[in-house]
Amino acid sequence: MRQIEWKYSTDRAPWCGGYWERLVRSMKNALRKVLGKALLRSWELHTVLCELEGWINDRPLTLLSEDPHNCAPLTPAHFLIGRELASLPIPAASASAPTNASSLRKRWRYQQLLMKHLWNRWLEEYLVTLTSRGKWTKIGRQPEKGDL
Question: Where are the domains of the chain?
Answer without folding.
Answer: 20-62+69-128
